[in-house]
Sequence to fold (269 residues):
Amino acid sequence: MKRHRPDWRGLVILGLSLAAGLALLIHGPIPQDAAYHGFADQRAYWGMPNGVDTLSNLAFLVVGLAGLHALRQGVPAGGLPPLRLAYALFFAGAALLFPSSGYYHLWPDNAGLAWDRLAMTISFMAFFASILGEHVSPRLGARLLLPLILLGILSVVYWRLTDQGDGGDLRLYLLVQFLPMLLVPFILLTYPSRLRPTAYLWAVIGWYLLAKGLESLDEPILHLTGLVSGHSLKHLAAALGIASFLLALYRRRPDPESRIQLNDPAVRD
Fold:
């Protein structure tokens, strides 16, 4: 009788997760920097404070509603039916960024930022559950969806509860946002995909990294262009990342060489 050997890939994912959590625990509280709210482009339009940063959130509404529309009668050929709820929550979180991030940019402070981050964590966690479902196990992705979403929400609630005017503690939120983006490339490289091509998923990661880079260059980009800031472009880059996942649902197809058959009960409605 053969002994079941632990999957080294799962052990790596578990090890990285534990290491990241332990590192943040040892590090101690990480407060929200009050200077974060001082965006470069504070021009008002039509009486709207921070007009471009606020209005650029419309991109999230457009792509989020487009994704929900694509799922209204089922999952397109480029997705897996058991992950329909994960896909829907990913796009719903994106659409919610329009009111939540828009509200935050009208009056930037920690209270508004919490609403912005709640919507973001819904999308982050739904995306991570989708990747787990498409590459590791559809059943695993579907079962972890709700716990991951709740963990994301908890990370924002914990930050706000610990904020007594000193910035609070961002450690759990940072873990929720950045650990999945560390694990997703590893999963894409080591687990066979049930859907091809995977280039659309790499595009999601690429747009995310570009968005973070643009965010860090908020003021220099405004000085360079005189028209738009790095933060406004960050919104557009992030929305294009969401659009890349929408394209994946339309353009990918089941991989005929996948070791997991798509008629397996785990991948059926």
About this structure: DSSP finds ten helices and two strands in the chain.
